[in-house]
Amino acid sequence: MALMMSLRFAPPASVAAPPPRRPRAVASSASSPALQRRRPQNVPGDFFVDHRCIDCQTCRWMAPEVFKRVDGKAAVAAQPISDEHRTKALQALLSCPTSSIHTEKPAKDILQVQNMFPLPIDNHLLPGVYLCGYHSQDSYGATSYLLTHPDGNILVDSPRYTTKLAENIEKLGGARYMFLTHMDDVADHRKWAERLKCERIIHSGDVEDVTADVEWKLTGNGPWDIGADFELIHTPGHTEGSVCLFYKPVKALFTGDHVAKSEESDDLDLFLMYSKQSVGLQLDSMRKLLKLDFEWFLPGHGYRIHYKDVHAKDSAIESLIANYTS
Ligand SMILES: [Zn+2]
């Protein structure tokens, strides 16, 4: 199965010099460095992607009407033709981990779009589940989520720290926990913990120097109790300490890098070339997910997947395992 997605630990050579991390909320002037870096693969018009894109997929799943993959990186394939498409393109601009998306003209509505984050994903199907946006280059553009809950909110992995996002998360009740799925997607975890006074959680198998001060280090295979509506599932393989979070009321599984959707098809994929620990363990960890009553995969990278029922989810997992074992 072709692998088109790059994760933090395998950056392409073209990003050897990290670009500035802050999003451009204003336009690029004709002489600006950004405009000079405009990829020729963009269609003419206001929005464009620069050549420092790291091909993390984020803009393509946030605003698929506008952004496509062209010659190995993102490009504007169609300028926004509606207010909805423009809003989604600006959400992608703010979320781009390398600040590679720009507009030629001043984006006067950028502050309005900033205030949309965290973004509700689907008020009907996933009530209380939000996208944080503001992806970090430190986690290779990983997605972070906010779950609002009466017993205290949970941040899943770390967005890039910005005061505006912090203010907006506080308006939603802050966070009781910051759950870190694994070592690759911790980004600005310390700044968030200092601001929100949340308790960080990571598995001891994935603790590094940057996470040595995390408050709660999970050991063994659990179970671990963070509330009756949640279950933490140890899913080693991608890393020793990879853990998925199962949010039972909405039948959603937050997977970190344990599993993701192929960009070329509707299939699940494991990206085994990035498996840091053991391919066999990662497949065993997929088998654990057959026992769980969920319909959504919310991965650390790439597109979300919603199955019509648990049987369809199990069928997809069985196909994935068969692909790698037959
Ligand atoms: Zn990872």
Automatic annotation (TrEMBL):
Bias (Low complexity) ranges: 25-34
Domain of life: Eukaryota
Stored InterPro entries: Metallo-B-lactamas, RibonucZ/Hydroxyglut_hydro
Sequence ranges assigned to domain Metallo-beta-lactamase in this UniProt record: 141-301
Regions that span the bilayer: none
Coiled coil: none
SUPFAM superfamilies in the cross-refs: 4Fe-4S ferredoxins, Metallo-hydrolase/oxidoreductase
Any Pfam family the entry gives: Lactamase_B
Residue numbers spanned by region Disordered: 12-41
SMART domains named in the record: Lactamase_B
Protein name: Metallo-beta-lactamase domain-containing protein
